[in-house]
Structure formats: structure tokens, C-alpha cells
Specification:
This protein has 14 helices and five strands. It is α+β, with helices and mostly antiparallel strands. It folds into two domains: 61 residues; 284 residues, no CATH class. α1 packs parallel to α13, α3 runs antiparallel to α11 and α6 runs antiparallel to α12. The mean pLDDT is 78.
């Protein structure tokens, strides 16, 4: 049996490999393309001014300008012109109205997420005020930044809500797991609908897109079948699941957790409602990412974003890198380039999105956590 440090070493190596790959792919210099004498000309250099409008100047690199450092305004160059800003130029030219629209969309998502979890808590007969639920959600976002994947903070949230529910701790903790699974199913349903009825035009061809589509369908099928099988008394009896739980070490704890999960078998209306809320809130998640993409100059359509966002967010949830860093940037970069944009822009949008939604809102959760600790110390 491999030791735990060996697996941690593999994860660290994977994180560094992804960071190296992203760094190698990202363009830091600005590039400009145009046609001259039926030839495609490429210049590298630095853009100055608002490159998303017409009032800009391009300073060519000395080595690409025959020994001369020359500057050209947009009106001096033959059209049409294709501009590919470097990473730092993209961030510097952010359009604030669209950025703040993205922040607002994400805030709505967080409010709906909290309501969904509160409904699951009520179904499990664990009363918790909306304000307290929102506070715990923000604390979870804070710990997502330092734990592997996008779900690491769920463990902290489960511990804290279980501490609040003194007599139904198992039920309280399990609601966090159910909340995450329902959210994941909603995310995949949204992606499956878009990929089925209005798939984007991916440069990898229909074969690549078909593999992505069937992977999403496979995850959905496994999720629904697994949920049905676990909740079905006849299937549980056939598999001998209850007998197995009685023979396991710490059987009392496992049976408490099992009872907490199966209670939703009689709360199917609540599960259906929370699934609908999950789909609705994921729409706001896509809008947040789409708005921040526009803020950086992305020309990908809303349809492209609705197809890409669920896939990348699902894969980023795998507990490998802290907060999914590196994984999301690699995937967004690949998808952006495959959809006719650039790898650099995909990485820039991903970083802006993560710094805002994960780190920014996570810091608010950190403040909530610190104030909770202070309150507890004063009361003790």
C-alpha cells in the first residue's frame, strides 16, 4: 500500500506541471496580424490605448522592425486587423461595467445557493436561519481557497453546521454532501442541454465535441442511477447493503449517516425543487463568467460559455489542486483556443473570474470565520 506522502507528492507534481504548461502557453507580448500583398503579416510588440476601440497605438519590438522601434496608430495599418493582446494588456484593459455585472450575477448565485441548502436542512429537520446558513456558506468559500478542488470548504461547512445541530449532527453534515451533489447535477444538466440542442463550433471537430457530450451524459446517468439505487429498498435488499452496514466497523456512525441520506427518499419534492434551483443558479454562474469574459474583450458567444462553463467547473471540482487552480486555467485556455479565441484570453478570464468569485468572496468568508471565532472566545 502506497504511503499518503506519495499521493501528496503526485498531486504537487501535477500542480507544478499544470502551472508550467499554462505559463508556457500564455502570451505576454501583444501581437497584431494583418494582410499585406496577399501575405499574412505578424508583429509583436506592445499595445497602448484602448485596443477594444479604434484609438490605440502599436509599438513594434525592435527585433521585428529591422532594427527600428516604430509605432503605428490603428489608422496607419491596413485593415482588417486582428489584435491578440498579451496577458497583462488584457487585464489592464478591463471594462468595469461588465466586470461589476459579473460580480452582481455571482452574488445572486450565492444567495440562491444558500436558499437551496436551507431547504435541504429543513427537509432533514435541522432548523437553521438563512443568515446563519449564508455565513457558513461564505466560510466554506474561504476554505475552498486552501483545500484541494472547489469543494474542500464543504468539509469545514459540514463540521460547523453539525456543531450547531447538537442532536442531529449526522443529518446536518449530510445536507452539505447532498447540497453539493444536487448542485453538480444541476450544472451537468445545464451543460447537457446546451451540448445536445445548440452545441458550439469547436475547432477540434465534431468527434472531440461528441466525446465531451457523451462524458457529460455518462456522469449524469451514473448520478441518477446511483441515487435511485441507493434510495431503492428493493435494490438495497438485493445488494445486501443494510446487512453490510451492520457488519462494518463503527457501524453506529455509518448507520446514522445512511439514515441521514435516505431521509430524502420521503422528501422528493424538496429534492426536485433544489434541482431546479441548481439549474437556475448555474445560469447566473455562466452569466458571471460570460460578463467577465466580455470585460476582458472575449468574443465568445453566450452559447459557447453555457457549453464550456459547466464542463470546466465540474472537472475543477476534482480534489487535486487547491481551489482547482491550474486545472481550470488549462481547460479554459484550451476551450477558448478551440472556439476561435486564444489560450491567453481563456487563462486571463479564468484568473479574473477565480480571483473575484473564489478569492474575493472567500476573503469575506474569512472575515466571517474570524468574527465567529472571536464571538466564541468571548462567550467561553
Amino acid at each position: 500500500m502506497k504511503s499518503p506522502w506519495f499521493f501528496r507528492l503526485i498531486k504537487v507534481g501535477l500542480v507544478f506541471a499544470l502551472a508550467w504548461y499554462v505559463t508556457r502557453q500564455v502570451e505576454t507580448r501583444d501581437r497584431l496580424f494583418f494582410e499585406e500583398n496577399e501575405q499574412r503579416i505578424e508583429w509583436t510588440g506592445k499595445l497602448e490605448g484602448n485596443w477594444q476601440e479604434t484609438d490605440w497605438v502599436f509599438h513594434r519590438d525592435i527585433e521585428t522592425a529591422a532594427g527600428e522601434d516604430r509605432s503605428f496608430s490603428s489608422s496607419e495599418l491596413p485593415h482588417p486587423i486582428e489584435i491578440r493582446p498579451g496577458f497583462f494588456t488584457l487585464l489592464k484593459g478591463i471594462r468595469l461595467p461588465f466586470y461589476f455585472l459579473g460580480i452582481g450575477s455571482w452574488l445572486i448565485l450565492l444567495l440562491i445557493v444558500t436558499k437551496r441548502w436551507q431547504l435541504l436542512l429543513e427537509a432533514a429537520e435541522v432548523p437553521l436561519s438563512y443568515r446563519r446558513a449564508l455565513r457558513l456558506c461564505f466560510i466554506g468559500y474561504f476554505f475552498n481557497n486552501v483545500m484541494p478542488g472547489l469543494t474542500g470548504g464543504d468539509l469545514v461547512r459540514a463540521v460547523m453546521v453539525a456543531r450547531d445541530a447538537k442532536e442531529k449532527r449526522a443529518r446536518a453534515a449530510v445536507t452539505v454532501l447532498v447540497d453539493r451533489l444536487v448542485g453538480l447535477m444541476g450544472l451537468l444538466i445545464l451543460g447537457a442541454v446546451v451540448l445536445s440542442f445548440a452545441p458550439p463550433q469547436f475547432a477540434g471537430g465534431e468527434e472531440t465535441l461528441a466525446r465531451v457530450r457523451w462524458a457529460v451524459f455518462a456522469f449524469l446517468a451514473c448520478g441518477f442511477l446511483g441515487t435511485w439505487a441507493y434510495q431503492s429498498p428493493s435494490v438495497r435488499k438485493t445488494l445486501g447493503l443494510d446487512a453490510l452496514l451492520r457488519r462494518l466497523p463503527f457501524r453506529d456512525q455509518f448507520q446514522s449517516l445512511d439514515e441521514a441520506v435516505t431521509i430524502y427518499n420521503t422528501r422528493r419534492g424538496t429534492l426536485f425543487l433544489t434541482l431546479l434551483l441548481s439549474i437556475a443558479l448555474q445560469v447566473f454562474g455562466v452569466l458571471a463568467f460570460y460578463s467577465m469574459g466580455i470585460a476582458l474583450g472575449s468574443t465568445l458567444s453566450a452559447l459557447d460559455n453555457f457549453a464550456v462553463f459547466p464542463i470546466v467547473q465540474t472537472i475543477s471540482s476534482v480534489p487535486v489542486a487547491p481551489a482547482g487552480w491550474g486545472i481550470g486555467e488549462t481547460l479554459y485556455g484550451r476551450f477558448f483556443s478551440g472556439l476561435g479565441s486564444t489560450f491567453t484570453l481563456g487563462v486571463a478570464v479564468s484568473i479574473l473570474f477565480r480571483l473575484t468569485t473564489q478569492v474575493g468572496f472567500g476573503l469575506l468568508g474569512g472575515l466571517a470565520w474570524l468574527s465567529s471565532r472571536s464571538s466564541n472566545q468571548q462567550n467561553s
